[in-house]
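Researcher: Let's do a round of design. I'm pasting the structure tokens now; please hold your answer until I've finished.
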């Protein structure tokens, strides 16, 4: 099952996506510029093999809901996100606000 929902963060509306798969759930919160995602995100792949795309993204691990994804500290971020001031340890919510 796929669920897409608007999420209000202050005056900003972003999109939350939840994909239920066998034995796992993929979670993402996205803006027009970038996104954060659960532990399934391969930041190394984005930084190395897809570096020409300049993807702005962050990864949080151990999250099971969209709310947890927004509250959790980011474990890793892409080079492009880092250049924007989005760093590991920053909450998903704070990272999303820098992406709008």
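Researcher: That's everything. Go ahead.
Model: Designed sequence:
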């Amino acid at each position: 099952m796929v669920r897409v929902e608007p999420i209000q963060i202050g005056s900003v509306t972003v999109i939350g996506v939840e994909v239920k798969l066998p034995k796992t759930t993929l979670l993402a919160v996205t803006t027009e510029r970038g996104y954060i995602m659960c532990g399934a995100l391969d930041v190394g792949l984005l930084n190395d093999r897809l570096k020409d795309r300049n993807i702005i993204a962050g990864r949080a691990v151990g999250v099971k809901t969209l709310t947890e994804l927004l509250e959790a500290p980011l474990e890793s971020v892409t080079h492009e996100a880092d250049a924007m001031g989005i760093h590991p340890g920053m909450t998903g919510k704070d990272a999303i606000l820098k992406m709008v």
